[in-house]
Amino acid sequence: MDLTLWQYQFRIIMLGDSTVGKSSMLKRYTEDLFLETINQTVGVDFYVHFLEVEPGVRIKLQFWDTAGQERFRSVTRSYYRNSVGGLLVFDVANRASFEHVHEWYTEVCEHVKPHTVLFVLVGHKNDREEAGERVVQRAEAEKLAAQLGAPYVEASAKTGHNIREAFELLTRRVYQGLLNGEVQLREGWDGVKSSAPQTHQLRKPQSSVPEKPTDRCSC
Ligand SMILES: Nc1nc2c(ncn2[C@@H]2O[C@H](COP(=O)(O)OP(=O)(O)OP(=O)(O)O)[C@@H](O)[C@H]2O)c(=O)[nH]1
Ligand SMILES: [Mg+2]
């Protein structure tokens, strides 16, 4: 099988304060690597990964890894519009990063109108709980996720816990959105691309996740 073949391309954006571990999550997911010392992202970095969401349906995931630092905001903003999915990341041992999640969410929603972005909220670095460093409790994160209409996952790039699950949850959410019409292919919008728009028919997935009312972007 030609590994470069894909039926759909999804553009996914990584969002959250500097040092919450966005680049580390992508490194773990795409290369299964973790670096204790990793350069802060300057502007935006780019990663690619392929995922088969059901037999015969291969998705090319294009990740925009944005810099969390405020001084890069004008650059990173220009990537919001052509994203179909966003991972909203905070560090469970950094309360400020949790408090800023709503700002990241609002900022993206305002810039993508009339499109919508589907989100997953990630409580990252949950390995820090063992050292007694957790300051954001799961219950409050779940409450925020429900307000944002996003599923919540706790993960760690350091241990690898739930990293694949977080990315796949978002990918499947977008794919499900394509099947049920919540996400649509549009001229002049690069959030989702199809390799064969005229011929490929969207099929029902073999096991579809039932949509909850909270699974919708509320912006
Ligand atoms: N304990 C722990 N540390 C982590 C984890 N993931 C990343 N780190 C560390 O956190 C620091 C910041 O990680 P980055 O991946 O660069 O964070 P970022 O969100 O990409 O930061 P910006 O590029 O500035 O926006 C690095 O020292 C990583 O080694 C994790 O799961 N657990
Ligand atoms: Mg980074």
TrEMBL record:
Annotated keywords: GTP-binding, Nucleotide-binding
Tagged with keyword Acetylation: no
Gene3D superfamilies named in the record: P-loop containing nucleotide triphosphate hydrolases
Coiled coil start-end: none
GO molecular function, one term: GTPase activity
Region of interest (Disordered), residue spans: 192-219
SMART domains: ARF, RAB, RAN, RAS, RHO
Pfam family, one: Ras
Compositionally biased intervals (Polar residues): 195-209
Family to which the UniProt record says this protein belongs: Belongs to the small GTPase superfamily. Rab family.
Official protein name in the record: Uncharacterized protein
UniProt organism field: Electrophorus electricus (Electric eel)
